[in-house]
């Protein structure tokens, strides 16, 4: 146990945790929205994120983007990668909904069936992706970790006075990007007509339908929005960590799901709170013990929180999230 | 603790502008609007509706009555797309609707309230009604997300301040924004119509019982239905509130809606309806004007038991 390491760099580690947590939070939105509307854990959501990271790599490759380009090119490449990742992830999410869930819904399958199809869908996507990569691009692609060019050069943009904490441009981008997306989504759900439909279905699907809300359209919408958020998360992840892998989604997915439960699944703001908390706890744990204890600590915290607040920290449903 | 707060009748005055909420109807008063054509509905071995046959004419207030378990609510459910009839069919404006999805039937022009109140509990009263209004909006998903469909606004719609006003003049206002505003105005007007506008911004689950019942009616009216089905709207009301409700039902008809009402309270049904259909054990046993039905021995027997026992 090394509390000194944590205390000495507390500001730095907190910033580190928030960065990590922002990404968890964005991915968690996908779990939480789908759960809010369908009472279903979409286990294939991790692969929605994975597809996003590869799309970023693909976009960079096509554009020939590398480290050390001019500012204009960096911005253009990043924005294009963002757009592509959002589209690819949203498309994947929508495809999963169409192929794995909609047919079951039409047949009125019990909830357990959805769960197992989701897991199956996730596995199929991961393994197929690995095989296809190897088949088309040959080694080193396939089942290994691949580097993604750090298009944005990491620089210290300012230092927080008083505690002398240097803040880099990439961290700033990740945190601000995540917060902007969350505010946008929150506003959408609380203030727009479609958001009202989403909340209506979350609160009472049958009544919503009798009041003219098209339930199928609302379901499509939450998958697309959740997917797009995972796409944003994928870009931010590649900016921070510069890598991807065919099964990168698994661990991020589990963590994001944990974050969603921690904050109160079904609650958009809960996803943010849960994500940030989880990120910070993980980084602290890796300092106090070592990184192999990260996950153990994270899940102990989850269990402790759920023991005292079984519905998660904010413990409300998507329907209840109000402006 | 009392089951619900009693709301003084004077608080529930209609202060709305009827011109703003009246609906356009697509046909003449008196013609058949909805036709329940020999509908049978079975759940396994249980026959919930047995060859039920009646129609609803435009502009009337039709009562659907019968003892508990007679199949009244089941009949509503079949009409609004919750159940599909096992046999027979239902036609609305000459279009077959049996087996159509509930939201489609709502778009065609049938709305309903529920015997056990089913509001969106965590939304404000106003938002509940706006969900109903949304059913009539035209902007697509992409139109909402990107606000791409711009409309040249009228003078009254323009923002008052400088930059935003100039912007709106040049680029127009998105149709979504205009529809949203119109929906909000109409929703407020409907809340005034049912007399509960004073608590428009309160969360629905915190509203008193009488308000919740009225809110359900306002939400159903918001979808601009040609036919509105009220499922026991007076349940749990005191005599003063029932009196009020009768007035409200008549005013709903005056807006251009056709009304179908399920009710247990005979005084209310006889007082407000033009015609009555009586169900018992899933079968229609009588149909006619309130006077005819009130005199019908079968109906009296169904409500009071067999005449021999009653004597």
UniProtKB/TrEMBL annotation, chain A:
Domain of life of the native organism: Bacteria
Transmembrane segments: 23-41, 48-67, 73-96, 108-126, 172-189, 218-240, 296-315
Matches recorded under Pfam families: BPD_transp_2 (PF02653)
Transport in keyword set: yes
Keyword Nucleotide-binding in annotation: no
InterPro entries: ABC_transp_permease (IPR001851), BCAA_transport_permease (IPR052157)
Localization annotation: Cell membrane
Membrane topology: Multi-pass membrane protein
Keyword terms of this UniProt record: Amino-acid transport, Cell inner membrane, Cell membrane, Membrane, Transmembrane, Transmembrane helix, Transport
Family indicated by similarity: Belongs to the binding-protein-dependent transport system permease family. LivHM subfamily.
Name this protein carries in UniProt: Branched-chain amino acid ABC transporter permease
Organism: Nocardioides pini
From TrEMBL, chain B:
GO MF term set: ATP binding
Keyword Transmembrane annotated: no
CDD domains (alphabetical): ABC_Mj1267_LivG_branched
Keyword Acyltransferase belongs to the record: no
UniProt keywords, alphabetically: ATP-binding, Nucleotide-binding, Transport
InterPro entries: AAA+_ATPase, ABC_AA/LPS_Transport, ABC_transporter-like_ATP-bd, BCA_ABC_TP_C, P-loop_NTPase
Name recorded for this polypeptide: ABC transporter ATP-binding protein
ABC transporter domain location: 34-306
Organism: Nocardioides pini
């Amino acid at each position: 146990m090394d509390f000194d390491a944590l205390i000495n760099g507390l500001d730095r580690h907190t910033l580190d945790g928030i960065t990590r947590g922002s990404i968890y939070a964005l991915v968690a939105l996908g779990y939480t929205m789908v759960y809010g509307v369908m009472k279903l854990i979409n286990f294939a959501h991790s692969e929605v994120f994975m597809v996003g990271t590869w799309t970023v790599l693909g976009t960079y490759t096509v554009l020939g983007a590398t480290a050390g380009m001019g500012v204009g090119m960096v911005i253009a490449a990043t924005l294009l990668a963002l757009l592509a990742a959002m589209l690819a992830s949203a498309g994947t999410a929508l495809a999963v909904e169409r192929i794995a869930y909609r047919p079951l819904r039409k047949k009125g399958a019990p909830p357990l069936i959805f769960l197992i199809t989701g897991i199956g869908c996730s596995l199929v996507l991961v393994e197929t992706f690995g095989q296809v990569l190897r088949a088309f691009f040959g080694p080193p692609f396939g089942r290994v970790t691949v580097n993604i060019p750090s298009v944005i050069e990491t620089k210290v943009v300012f230092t927080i006075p008083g505690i002398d904490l240097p803040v880099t441009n990439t961290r700033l981008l990740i945190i601000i990007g995540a917060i902007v997306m969350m505010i946008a989504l929150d506003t959408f759900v609380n203030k727009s007509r479609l958001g009202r439909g989403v909340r209506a279905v979350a609160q009472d699907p049958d009544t919503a339908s009798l009041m003219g809300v098209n339930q199928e359209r609302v379901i499509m919408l939450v998958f697309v929005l959740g997917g797009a958020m995972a796409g944003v998360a994928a870009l931010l992840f590649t900016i921070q960590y510069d890598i991807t892998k065919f099964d990168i989604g698994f661990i991020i997915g589990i963590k994001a799901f944990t974050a969603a439960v921690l904050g109160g699944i079904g609650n958009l703001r809960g996803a943010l709170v849960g994500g940030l908390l989880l990120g910070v706890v993980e980084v602290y744990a890796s300092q106090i013990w070592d990184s192999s204890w990260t996950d153990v600590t994270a899940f102990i915290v989850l269990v402790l929180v759920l023991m005292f607040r079984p519905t998660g920290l904010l413990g409300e449903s998507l329907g209840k999230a109000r402006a | 603790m009392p089951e619900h707060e009693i709301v003084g009748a004077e608080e529930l005055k209609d202060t709305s502008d009827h011109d703003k909420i009246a609906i356009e109807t697509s046909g003449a008063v008196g013609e058949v609007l909805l036709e329940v054509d020999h509908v049978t509905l079975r759940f396994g071995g249980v026959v919930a509706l047995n060859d039920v046959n009646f129609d609803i004419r435009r502009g009337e207030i039709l009562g659907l009555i019968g003892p508990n378990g007679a199949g009244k609510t089941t009949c509503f459910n079949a009409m609004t797309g919750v159940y599909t009839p096992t046999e027979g069919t239902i036609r609305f404006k000459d279009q077959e609707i049996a087996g159509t999805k509930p939201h489609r039937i709502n778009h065609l022009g049938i709305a309903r309230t529920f015997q056990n109140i089913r509001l969106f509990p965590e939304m404000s009263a106003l938002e509940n009604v706006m969900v109903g209004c949304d059913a009539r909006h035209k902007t697509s998903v992409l139109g909402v997300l990107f606000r791409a469909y711009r409309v040249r606004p009228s003078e009254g719609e323009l923002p008052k301040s400088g930059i935003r006003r100039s912007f709106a003049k040049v680029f127009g206002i998105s149709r979504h924004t205009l529809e949203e505003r119109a929906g909000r105005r109409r929703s407020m007007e409907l809340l005034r119509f049912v007399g509960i506008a004073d608590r428009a911004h309160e969360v629905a689950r915190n509203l008193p019982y009488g308000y919740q019942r009225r809110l359900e009616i306002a939400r159903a009216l918001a979808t601009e239905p040609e036919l509105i089905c009220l499922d026991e709207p007076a349940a749990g009301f005191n005599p003063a509130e029932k009196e009020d409700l009768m007035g409200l039902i008549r005013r709903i008809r005056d807006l251009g809606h056709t009304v179908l009402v399920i009710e247990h309270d005979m005084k209310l049904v006889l007082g407000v309806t033009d015609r009555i259909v009586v169900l018992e054990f899933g079968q229609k046993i009588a149909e006619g004007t309130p006077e005819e039905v009130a005199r019908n021995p079968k109906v009296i027997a169904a409500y009071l038991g067999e005449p021999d026992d009653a004597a």
